[in-house]
Design goal:
Elements: E1 2-3, E2 13-14, H1 26-38, E3 46-50, H2 56-63, E4 68-72, H3 76-92, E5 97-101, H4 105-111, E6 116-121, H5 129-139, E7 143-154, E8 166-174, E9 177-184
Parallel strand pairs: 3-4, 3-6, 4-5, 6-7
Antiparallel strand pairs: 1-2, 7-9, 8-9
Helix pairs in contact: 2-3, 4-5
């Protein structure tokens, strides 16, 4: 069972599509959000959750004080689950704006004019390093000056190739999962 861990929508159960998603475990989300919240990176943030799956990462941010969340997933089942989960969270956090986009992450980034303070990227394992690199490169112009990008991958995956404009900040391992954080590089 996947659920929102803490905040205004804490304990809300999230719908998980029957196939095609690998939700971030409660343990990993709890550790990740403890770190982010302790640095003041969630409260009042504009958040993007790319390859959203259930939307658990973006919706956890909404529950913990983000003001705007965008969930992006190209799979129809995942996008439908994100919409249903967003409605459940908005009932508990009525002031947050949550938008769901049923399209590839790269396509979304190339057409949006929105900017983000916090971005989660948790692609399926089969997403190549090349595709991930393209997404990261397209993301850079969509980031605010103090934005943080969290990339979640298998521990067997190499570190992402960070494009100009992003620099790695930290790497944390949680069993089979590794989360890299990057920040906007100083000009």
């Amino acid at each position: 069972m996947t659920r929102i861990i803490a905040g205004a929508a804490g304990s809300t159960t999230l719908r998980v599509p029957k196939t095609g998603t690998r939700p971030t475990s409660d343990r990993v989300r709890e550790a990740l959000f403890s770190s982010l919240a302790s640095r003041g990176l969630v409260e009042d943030a504009a958040v993007a959750d790319l390859y959203a799956g259930t939307g658990a990462l973006g919706l956890e941010a909404a529950s913990r004080g983000a003001v705007e969340v965008v969930l992006v997933d190209r799979a129809a089942g995942a996008a439908a689950a994100c919409k249903e989960n967003a409605r459940a969270v908005q009932k508990r956090v009525p002031g947050v704006r949550i938008d769901v986009h049923a399209q590839p992450a790269l396509g979304f980034l190339r057409q949006t004019v929105r900017t983000f303070d916090l971005v989660f990227i948790d692609p399926p394992y089969e997403v190549t390093e090349h595709e991930l690199g393209e997404v990261l490169e397209a993301l850079v112009p969509r980031l605010t000056r103090e934005a943080v990008v969290v990339v979640e991958r298998s521990k067997r995956s190499p570190e992402p190739t960070w494009p100009a404009g992003l620099e790695a900040f930290s790497k944390r391992s949680y069993g089979e999962t590794v989360a890299w954080e990057a920040v906007v590089a100083a000009a």
